Amino acid sequence: MKVEAKTMENAVEVGGAADANPCVSKSRVRDRIFDTACDLFYKQGIRGVGVDAIASEAGTNKMSFYRSFPSKDELVAEYVRDAARQFMAWWDEVVAPYPNDPRRQAEALFEATVNKPIEQCNRGCAMANVMVEIQEEDHAALVVVREHKAEIRQRLRQLAADMGASNPDKLGDSLMLVMGGTFQARMIFPAGNTPVDVAGCAAKVLIEAHLRGAC
Amino acid sequence: MKVEAKTMENAVEVGGAADANPCVSKSRVRDRIFDTACDLFYKQGIRGVGVDAIASEAGTNKMSFYRSFPSKDELVAEYVRDAARQFMAWWDEVVAPYPNDPRRQAEALFEATVNKPIEQCNRGCAMANVMVEIQEEDHAALVVVREHKAEIRQRLRQLAADMGASNPDKLGDSLMLVMGGTFQARMIFPAGNTPVDVAGCAAKVLIEAHLRGAC
DNA sequence: TGCTATAGTTACTGACCGGTAACACCCATG
DNA sequence: CATGGGTGTTACCGGTCAGTAACTATAGCA
Q: Which residue of chain B comes nearest to A170, CA vs CA?
């Protein structure tokens, strides 16, 4: 199967029709490897995917991998950085339609979480999964994960403060719990009719209660 | 990780009559191995712990391991079963002081989750971690995890129904999200002052609001 | 044409890991 | 004392995996 992919790519490149195949032939080897790795890491776990598998799935081989990345660990760290960037970009995008309306922004975030396409998150939170799989406490990837989660917590607390909650840290942290639980539930209950569906409702209830002065 | 010729029961019964001599001295090694394995699996992950490490940490060796367990996979499944049993026992214990008071029971569960000793859960939810680490969809351990999570969901929904919530499934699932998020947060923010602290409060707010008729 | 950067191929090392074989030892029971 | 079950010990097999070496092929550019 990998041989077919390689030969096809070569044929396309030789043919020169570059724009017709944006996903494989035109991109640099490094980018192909990286995209493939991100996909496989999320779907099969860090430890469940070897360098050989990544390379051949990307239509190349291990040597080209090591010409682009100094080690698998470094690739993992890059994967986590990219996941963090993507999550924040998603956040900003979801929030953008409601400027100066922090309550609506928070609600939109949880609704968007519920409605995320299944294949994008049926393995739960990529960052949390990395923390489960990596044991070395000082691994570069874990530093990124901790920073990322701390920033999400901070953002939720800020949203709570901006919407005038009487105890913004408590509301923000409560929302943090719901968000984390939602991602976890997407992994554990992958099919329809799961606890995931109530995430938006739970967030609304928490916000409503806190704005009423609960806690 | 794939040999499955023998079964757990066979391995246990190899010692002889299963009922005549209830395994005090005979299965001491087995118990030591199992306890050690549970500890290491939780702290370092399934894939992060080898059979050699388990055996030597238990003061024995690999051969004795394979005299007690047919395979590492089977041990993992047993580990998950034990974790599920322990969790349910903990649940029943926490709930026991408040018979016929489902609301108080639910609140007690979340308070107890917050107050669990750190070293018992600073790696988050053992069941969820197993689901992250194991890729084989039909692995025996994963079946146990799914059943366990489904039962917790059912229990929370039942509690919500018993306390008279207008929409018990929504309340139960909301609590499920908070509970999952709490365990995840214990792994991600291991030190003091974390979102974990608000889990009891979040649960109370959700219950209160639902009993008032929200959603 | 020839140089250089990029990429493919094959083969290898060393470590680790799950699992097994064969044998030696200890000790309780008969 | 003899037997046998549980245990310890050593060595090994087959597989996987991260990482490297050395060579080849190609494509663009001067």
A: B198
Confidence at residue B27, expressed as pLDDT on a 0 to 100 scale: 61
pLDDT of residue B120: 82
Q: Strand C footprint at Cβ < 7 Å?
A: A 6, 9, 28-30, 59-64, 67-68; B 1-3, 5, 49-53, 62-63, 66, 71-73
Decide if A210 touches B, using CB distance below 8 A: yes
Q: Residue B103 and residue A94: Cα distance in Å, rounded?
A: 35
pLDDT, tens digit, 9 for 90 and up, residues B143-165: 999 999 999 999 999 999 999 99
Cβ-defined contacts of B25-31 (< 8 Å, 24+) = B27/B68, B29/B58, B29/B60, B29/B64, B29/B68, B30/B68, B30/B69
CA atoms within 13 A on the CB side of A191: 2
DSSP H stretches of helix in A116-198? 118-121, 126-133, 140-162, 168-188
Residue A15: pLDDT over 90: no
Check pLDDT > 90 for residue B25: no
**C1' of nucleotide C17: residue with nearest CA:** B50
Residue in chain A nearest B127 by alpha carbon: A188
How far apart are the two ends of chain A, measured CA to CA in Å? 59
> Which domains, ranges and CATH numbers included, belong to chain B?
8-70 (1.10.10.60), 76-215 (1.10.357.10)
- Given an 8 Å threshold on Cβ–Cβ distance, is B209 in contact with A210? no
- The residue type of A84 is A
Nearest CB partner across the interface for A188, out of B48, B131, B133 = B131
Question: Residue A27's pLDDT is what?
Answer: 58
* Chain A residues inside the 8 Å CB shell of B166: none
Kindly write down the DSSP assignment for every residue of B123-136, as one continuous string.
T--HHHHHHHH---
Give the pLDDT confidence of A69-103 residue by residue, as tens digits.
Answer: 999 999 999 999 999 999 999 999 999 999 999 99
Compute CA distances A74 → A68, A86, A106, whole Å. Answer: 11, 18, 34
Q: Which amino acid does the sequence have at A54?
A: I
